[in-house]
Amino acid sequence: MSAVMSSSAAQARRHIVFTATLAALAGLMFGLDVGVISGAQQFIQRDFAIDDRAIEHIVSSMMLGAALGAALAAWLSGHFGRKRSLIFSA
């Protein structure tokens, strides 16, 4: 019985490590996205003469667009297949 418990504990540990790794990678991707928009932020503010509140909405909309794009990509991939959805997006 202990072999079954040991196997179950090892599987749970692998699942925890996998989940933690994905969470860390998601944090890195968020940092990358924020880094991309921060380079353009001052130029957007200057060229369009907008205040800090409006730039907050622009940055937030970029994150929302990324989330919606990921959901759309998942649906396209499931519906048409990965290869066709990549060809379509290119």
From TrEMBL:
PROSITE patterns: MFS (PS50850). It is found in: Membrane. Residues 19-90 form the Major facilitator superfamily (MFS) profile domain. GO terms for molecular function: transmembrane transporter activity. The keyword Transport applies. This is General substrate transporter. One of its GO terms (cellular component) is membrane. The keyword Cell division does not apply. Gene3D superfamilies: MFS general substrate transporter like domains (1.20.1250.20). The chain crosses the membrane at residues 55-76. Keywords: Membrane, Transmembrane, Transmembrane helix, Transport. Its main location: membrane. It comes from mine drainage metagenome. SUPFAM superfamilies: MFS general substrate transporter. InterPro entries: MFS_dom (IPR020846), MFS_sugar_transport-like (IPR005828), MFS_Sugar_Transporter (IPR050820), MFS_trans_sf (IPR036259). Belongs to the major facilitator superfamily. Sugar transporter (TC 2.A.1.1) family.
